[in-house]
Amino acid sequence: MISDLKIQQLRYVIMVVEEGSFHSAARRLHRTQPALSMAVRELEQRLGQNLFERGSKNRLTPFGEYCVPRFRDLVGQHDRMANDVINHADGTQGHVHIATVPSVASRIMPALLAEFIARFPDINISLHDENAHYVCQMVAQGEVDLGITSIWQTNEDLEYAHLFEDKIGVVCRRDHILASCETLGWQSLQGEKLIRNGTSRLLMSTAAAQLVENSAFYISNMISLIAMLEAGAGITTLPRLAFPETNANLCFVPLHDPEVVRRIGLVKTINRTLAPAAQAMQAFLLEKLRHGAE
Amino acid sequence: MISDLKIQQLRYVIMVVEEGSFHSAARRLHRTQPALSMAVRELEQRLGQNLFERGSKNRLTPFGEYCVPRFRDLVGQHDRMANDVINHADGTQGHVHIATVPSVASRIMPALLAEFIARFPDINISLHDENAHYVCQMVAQGEVDLGITSIWQTNEDLEYAHLFEDKIGVVCRRDHILASCETLGWQSLQGEKLIRNGTSRLLMSTAAAQLVENSAFYISNMISLIAMLEAGAGITTLPRLAFPETNANLCFVPLHDPEVVRRIGLVKTINRTLAPAAQAMQAFLLEKLRHGAE
DNA sequence: GCCACCTAATAATTAATACTTATCGTTTAA
DNA sequence: TTAAACGATAAGTATTAATTATTAGGTGGC
């Protein structure tokens, strides 16, 4: 097996053929004429056959006629591949998989991703919504590149970057007595029928822990939870982002004492390098969400 | 547009992936480990992204995972192309177009080409038979690579190499009075009904020219000519090779005075380089036919 | 026919690149 | 904890590719 042919040499030959002379080919390649002469001759010697007729005009030999289309093919394939790889390298092309908690997925991501795809039109995005724990798991297992989730437990394989905080409040019907309050302390909730949900654990290590512990109801499904609240079956606590703001029947009252926040952060694996498109997404998310109140 | 990626660098990357370590990849590539390290790093810098995870084990980055199959593709395409081109360069593969006069085509080429294709099984051959003049024309116009023909007129675009001589003789019915002669002089033919054919011009510049000039019949088609002779309609002159030796009714008597020979030679263009496969054929024909009496 | 002119080949030199040897710092496994 | 394996780095060398300057070979104009 012969040693590698150099793409550049093939390109030289093609250009000489296209231009019809070594001189003008050299000009277009920003080389001098002897550079082409020598490179072509070196290639010819390696192949053991001349590509160009020597002596008179620089026509191709029959062997050259055979080779040049093949050279063109390979150079074309190289260029397409190189272009493709470069686009992926600089993050203008690729596929990013993101997992987020549902509240972020529905309230924050739509506008954000619209802006992202406007800026990076050739990046494909897959967005999964899962609960906070499963978001971390998907990141850790490499099922997604990035996660946006509430940070609740450190994992040494994952790297967390804080984005913003999300205040916990009480959600109840608009006609509920608590609805008129500007802000609430946990004592005000005693005696209320509290329905727990997936975010209730955020209160566990606070002064309001007892409230949660005494609650008999647990509903994980947000749609069911909202329906229960609308029916006046009780109240619950939610991070503001998880509260459906457009709902006409329910209202959100911030919890003042204790002031509880859900810390939302960007999660990625610590070992694996992100694909360039994911790096672009990461930078975009940090730029747009870091330190923002929402 | 980025500068050319080097096939060799891509090969290095692929080998590191296959072997799982820089060390063993280097061993298989007959290089030292730092050579690979540096080459890979150079490529990574040009792409602007790492292909391998640095720090811990040498796994591929997601970007590397994306690239390596494409690198493999290009290297594979390169190798196939290089192989193909090399085979054509050394004449083990290709297509040769030959034109010969009919007598050579039917009497000499069959066995010769059988031997050739046994020696060069991957070379395709096209064989045309045409008259001597048109053989030269086909060569001159590049329709064929090589011609085997009688040399009768110099052409500055063509290069002739003598192969062998072909004696002219008289062809007549076995029951003809001349048939019993061992050899003949032109005087013996006077009074005979001579049928001219395409090869009769070979006698024009000899002592027998008058015979030909006085002949009233001309038949160019060999089948018709033979039929005429078999019918006893006259006699003709032919080079020995053009005489159908298996014919039971006709016989060939060498012409002694004048002794006329048809010079058969190999013809090719003087300007154009032969394709490697044609070079192989040329060498083969010269080896087999040069100086041979037949 | 001779002379300019255009082109490619060659020679000498320099720049760039690829590789080697030697060494160091980590990590892995005994 | 040490030895072994691995990769990164540094310094030096070899190889390759490019430059400039020059030569040589045709071609066309006069």
Q: Assembly type of the shown chains?
A: homodimer
**Second CATH tier, the architecture of the largest domain in chain A:** 3-Layer(aba) Sandwich
| Gross morphology of chain A | rod-shaped
Q: Superfamily at the CATH H level of the largest domain in chain A?
A: Periplasmic binding protein-like II
* Percent helix range of chain A: 40-55%
Chain-wise SSE layout:
The structure is a homodimer of 294-residue chains.
Chain A: H1 7-19, H2 22-29, H3 33-47, H4 62-89, E1 94-100, H5 102-107, H6 109-119, E2 123-129, H7 132-140, E3 146-150, E4 158-173, E5 184-185, E6 194-196, H8 209-214, E7 217-218, H9 222-230, E8 235-239, E9 250-257, E10 261-269, H10 276-289
Parallel strand pairs in A: 1-2, 1-3, 5-9, 6-7, 6-8
Antiparallel strand pairs in A: 3-10, 4-8, 4-9, 4-10
Helix pairs in contact in A: 1-2, 1-3, 1-4, 2-3
Chain B binds a DNA duplex (30 and 30 nucleotides) through residues 8, 21-23, 31-39, 41-42, 54-58.
Structure in a nutshell:
Two copies of one chain form a homodimer. Chain A has helices at residues 7-19, 22-29, 33-47, 62-89, 102-107, 109-119, 132-140, 209-214, 222-230, 276-289, and strands spanning 94-100, 123-129, 146-150, 158-173, 184-185, 194-196, 217-218, 235-239, 250-257, 261-269.
Notes on the protein architecture:
Chains A, B: Pfam families: HTH_1, LysR_substrate. The structure is a homodimer of 294-residue chains. Chain A has 294 residues and is α/β, with parallel strands linked by helices. Chain A has three domains: 7-89, Arc Repressor Mutant, subunit A (Orthogonal Bundle), CATH 1.10.10.10; 94-163 and 263-289, 3-Layer(aba) Sandwich (D-Maltodextrin-Binding Protein, domain 2); 166-262, Periplasmic binding protein-like II (D-Maltodextrin-Binding Protein, domain 2, 3-Layer(aba) Sandwich). Chain A has ten helices and ten strands. In chain A, strands 1, 2, 3, 4, 5, 6, 7, 8, 9 and 10 form a ten-stranded mixed β-sheet that branches. The radius of gyration of chain A is 32 Å and the shape is rod-shaped. Chain A starts with 6 loop residues before the first helix and ends in a 5-residue tail after the last helix. The relative contact order of chain A is 0.14. Chain A binds chain B through residues 1-2, 4-8, 11, 47-50, 53, 56, 61-63, 66-67, 70-71, 73-74, 77-79, 81-86, 88-90, 94, 145, 271-276, 278, and chain B through 1-2, 4-8, 11, 47-50, 53, 56, 61-63, 66-67, 70-71, 73-74, 77-79, 81-86, 88-90, 94, 145, 271-276, 278. Chain B binds a DNA duplex (30 and 30 nucleotides) through residues 8, 21-23, 31-39, 41-42, 54-58.
